[in-house]
């Protein structure tokens, strides 16, 4: 089943999220261990994962459960979060959000539609991205930084790109290749930003966003918000 995660790790991650990530009024981020929340799914959600293996069902259900906890914190109706053709969450009217999971943990971020245009969140194992993946995931300029930076930089840059792409896709309607955007990391400030290098003009909205990251236990977490 899912990787074992202790209560202490769960609580530590939630505490660091509260202390280090910006959560403007009208936005909520909730973390939790992956567990069996299948009984909480709406019928359409259950149908979306009926054919999946048990591990994927639990990941999906935990993400939806956390999303509804965030909705409740924002005084929003607890509604279904569907799944699109590209497996992206389909958020109900009145809110935007993002869901991520990795190594036994899941996180949901939700914001009222009048607060943010879009957001993306991504959780990864901090040591997941090794040197053999650099050429596939990063531009030549990014790879130069990776050769001289902190050994966790590869995991951070991958996570940050995922968060940025998740936030951009609902607004621009086209996925971004890993080398279509270049990322700048401000390590001391815990922030990041993008330069879009591709030819799909709507994707340039990512250059208006704000990125934040943190490390906790074995994880790296990235948040990207587009006002």
Topology:
Blueprint: H1 7-20, E1 27-33, H2 43-49, H3 54-73, E2 82-83, E3 89-90, E4 95-102, E5 105-112, E6 118-125, H4 134-137, H5 140-148, H6 153-172, E7 181-186, E8 191-196, E9 210-216, E10 219-226
Antiparallel strand pairs: 1-5, 2-3, 4-5, 6-10, 7-8, 8-9, 9-10
Can you characterise this structure?
By secondary structure, the protein is an alpha+beta fold. The protein has 2 domains: 7-116, Ribosomal Protein L22, Chain A (Alpha-Beta Complex), CATH 3.90.470.20; 130-209, no CATH class. Helices cover 33% and strands 27% of the residues. It contains 6 helices and 10 strands; from the N terminus they run αβααβββββαααββββ. The chain has a 5-stranded antiparallel sheet with strand order 6-10-9-8-7. Strands 1-5-4 form a 3-stranded antiparallel sheet. A hairpin with a 2-residue loop joins β9 (210-216) and β10. It is globular, with a radius of gyration of 17 Å. The mean pLDDT is 94.
pLDDT < 50 stretches: none
Q: Percentage of helical residues?
A: 25-40%
Number of strands: 10
Number of domains: 2
SSE succession: HEHHEEEEEHHHEEEE
Which descriptor suits the 3D outline? Answer: globular
Could you state the CATH homologous superfamily of the largest domain?
A: 4'-phosphopantetheinyl transferase domain
CATH fold category name of the largest domain: Ribosomal Protein L22, Chain A
Termini distance?
A: 38 Å
Report the structural category.
Answer: alpha+beta
Averaged pLDDT: 94
Order of the strands making up the biggest sheet: 6-10-9-8-7
Number of helices: 6
Q: What is the name of the CATH architecture of the largest domain?
A: Alpha-Beta Complex
Radius of gyration: 17 Å
Q: For the report, how would you describe the main beta sheet?
A: 5 strands, antiparallel
CATH C-level class of the largest domain = Alpha Beta
Quote the beta fraction: 25-35%
